[in-house]
Write a structure and sequence with these properties.
The structure is a homotetramer.
Chain A (H helix, E strand, L loop, with lengths): L3 H17 L9 H7 L2 H7 L1 H24 L8 H15 L1 H11 L6 H27 L11 H25 L3 H16 L12 H6 L1
C-alpha cells in the first residue's frame, strides 16, 4: 500500500486546521467595544490573539512541511501506520483549541500560567506522536527505505527525544514561569525553521535518486 | 464513469468533517472561568469534550479508511450511486453535531441519556447508509468487480447487519443505561480498528492484481 | 488554459461549503434546555434544522455533480470565465447562511415567510450564475466543444430559464405562501435528482469519445 | 524541489479561507429580530456584511488566480521559499477576520474608520508578502525561469510597489476619510480583475512553450 492517499488526506487536514486558526481570533460585539474604548483600542488590545495565530500558523505549516519530509523516506504504509497517522492528525487538529486558549488568556495574569501550559501540551503532542510513528516504521525497516543509513535514523530519533525533553521542561516550567516556557517555544520554533537534514542513504547511491 | 472524482470529493468532506470536530470543544469565556474556579480547573473539567473529540476523530478516520477499502472493489459508479455517496457523506458530516452534544452533556446526569442516544444515532447512520450502497452496487454485480467472490460479499453484508443490530441495541439501551451503550461503542470501535479483510476474488487470479 | 485547476479549486469549495452546513445546527446551552424541557425535547424540536441541513446538503451535492457535468463539455477556460466561476462559487458558499436562516426560523410563524424568501433566493443564485457562464462559454463556441449539437445547447438553456421562472415564482409566493414555495423547492429538487442528460455531439462521433 | 505540493496545499488553504467567509455573516438570534423589527428588516439591514462577503470572496479568488499565475514562472522552490509561501497563506487566511470587522462595523459611524483601517491592512498584507517572495525568487534567478525577460520582471515589481503605495495611502486616509479608502479598494479591485499580463521570455522561444 503506497502512502499517496494518506498524504493527500493529511494535506487536507493540515490545510483546514491551519485555516481554522483565524476563527479563534474573536470578532467583537458592540458591548465588547464599550468596555475596550472603541474599535481601534479593541483591535490593538487583542494582539496576543494575533501572535498566537501567527505562531500556530507557522507551527502547523512546519509540521506540514516535516510530514512531507518524513514521507520522503517512508515509502509504504500498513493498517497500524494508517491509524498512527490518524492519531498524528488528531493532535494537529487540536492546535486551534490550545491556540485560542493562549490568545485569549495569556494577557490575563490570573490565567496566564494555565494558558501557557495548555499551549505547550498542544505543541508537544504532534512530535510525540511522530516518535511513535518513526519507531514503528523503522523497526526492522518495516516501512522505511532499507537503504536509509542507520546513523541518519539514529540522529533523527535523538533529535526527537531531545525535543521532547525540551518541551517537557517547558510544560513543567509553565506552572510557575510561563514566560520562560514561551521563550523555549520560540527557540524550538527557530530550530524548526532551519531546513530539515537530507536523508542519507547507504550505497547503492542510485536508490536515493529513484526514491524521489 | 470511474469513481476517482467521487473519492476525491469524499476525501475532502472527510478531512473537513474530521477537522471541524475541534470547533466543538468550547473556548471558555471569562465568566465560565469564575464558575469553574480558574483555567486549570476548566481545562480538566471538560475532559468529556476531549474524549468525545478523540472518539469521533478515530471514528471518522476509520470511516475514511473503510470508504477507500470499499472503493477498492467498487470500480465504477452511476447517478444513483453518486447520490447514495452524497447521502453517506451527509451522515459523516453530521458527526461533529452529535459529538458536541455528547461532549457537552454526558457529564450531566440530567442529560446523559439523551446525549448518548444522540451520539449512538449519529454513529450508526454512516454504516447504515453503507448497507444501502453495498446492496445497490452488489445487485447483479452492477458496480462491483464481477470476479469478487460471493462468499466475501455475503460475509461483508452479514458483518454490516450484525453491526446494525449491535448499534440498534446500543440506541435502545441508551434511554436507560447510557454507560452500557458507551461500552458497546467502545467495543465496536475496537472491532473497527482491526484491519479490514482482504477482498477475495475468484479465478482468474490476475484480475485481483490489476484491480489494485 | 485547461479547466483542471479550476475544477480542483471548485471541488474544494464545494466540499467545504457542504460540510460547514453542520455548524449551523445549533448546539444547545444549558439555558436552552431549561426552556425546551430537556435534551430529548430540544433534539426533536430542532427538526427543521435537520431538514434544512439535509435539503441543503443534497442541493450542494447536486450542484457539485452538475458542475462536473458542465465541465464535461466546457473544455477550456479564460480569464473572464475564471471570474464567472468564482462568482458561481460565491453563490454556492452563501448557502450555509440561508440554510441556517431557514432552519432557525421556519417553525416560527412570525418569521416563516422571510426565512423561506431568504432560502429561495440563496437557492436560485447558483443556477442563475450558471446561465451567465453557459451563455458566455457558448457564445460562438468560445469555450465549448464545437461539436456539441446546437439542439443540446438550446434545450439546456431553455431548461435553465424554465428553472429560473419556477424559482422566481417561488420567491414571489414566499412573501405570502411560504409553504407553496417550499413545495416548489421540493419539486425542483426531485427534478435535479434525475440523471443529467448526456451531451449530444455532431459527427464525427469519435470526438465525443476522446472528449471524456 | 518542484512546486506542485506547495501549490496543492496553497489551493486547499485558499478554498477554505474563501468558504469560511460566510461564517462571518451573522445568523440572528430571536432577540436580534426584536430590535431590528422582523427578519425581513434584519436581512436587509446587514447588507454591509453581504458586501464585505462579496468583496472578500472576489479578493481571495483573485489572489488564488494570481498565485497560480506566479507559479507559472516560478518553477522550483526551496526551504526559505516554502516558509515565505506559508507566510503568504497566513495573510490570506487572515482576511475572514478583517472582513467580519468591516461587515459588522462599517455602517456604525462610531467604528467606521477603524473597521476600514482594519480591512485595508488585511487587504494589503498578501501582496506585501508577494513582493518579498518575488524579490527572493528573482534574486539572480534563484527560483525563476532564467529565460524570463528582465523587463517583464521589472514591470511586475514596479506594479507591486505602485500597488503598495496606493494601499498605503488607503490605510493613511482611512483614519479620517474611510469612504475614500473604500473607493481606492474598489479601484484596485477593478485593476485586479483585468487579466494578468503574460510572462515574456527571451529567446530561445521554445522554453516558454515547455515552461507551460
Amino acid at each position: 500500500m503506497t502512502t499517496s492517499r494518506l498524504e493527500a488526506f493529511s494535506d487536507g487536514v493540515f490545510s483546514i486546521a491551519i485555516t481554522l486558526l483565524i476563527l479563534e481570533v474573536k470578532i467583537p460585539k458592540h458591548e465588547d467595544l464599550l468596555h475596550s474604548g472603541g474599535l481601534y483600542n479593541y483591535l490593538t488590545s487583542i494582539w496576543p490573539s494575533y501572535l498566537a495565530y501567527a505562531i500556530s500558523f507557522l507551527v502547523i505549516g512546519i509540521y506540514w512541511s516535516n510530514h512531507h519530509w518524513l514521507y520522503s523516506f517512508i515509502k509504504k504504509t500498513d493498517h497500524v501506520f494508517n491509524l498512527l497517522n490518524i492519531l498524528f492528525l488528531m493532535t494537529v487538529s487540536f492546535m486551534p483549541f490550545t491556540t485560542a486558549i493562549l490568545g485569549d488568556f495569556i494577557s490575563d495574569p490570573l490565567y496566564r500560567n494555565a494558558s501557557v501550559t495548555a499551549y505547550c501540551i498542544g505543541y508537544v503532542l504532534p512530535p510525540a506522536t511522530v516518535i511513535i510513528m518513526v519507531l514503528y516504521a523503522g523497526h526492522h525497516n518495516r516501512l522505511m527505505d532499507p537503504l536509509l543509513s542507520r546513523s541518519f535514523k539514529n540522529r533523527f530519533i535523538v533529535k526527537l527525544i531531545f525535543g521532547m525533553l525540551l518541551m517537557g521542561s517547558a510544560i513543567a516550567l509553565s506552572f510557575n514561569y510561563p514566560m520562560i516556557s514561551m521563550f523555549i517555544i520560540g527557540f524550538s520554533l527557530i530550530m524548526f525553521l532551519l531546513p530539515p537534514t537530507k536523508p542519507i542513504y547507504n550505497l547503492p547511491k542510485q536508490s536515493s535518486e529513484s526514491g524521489n
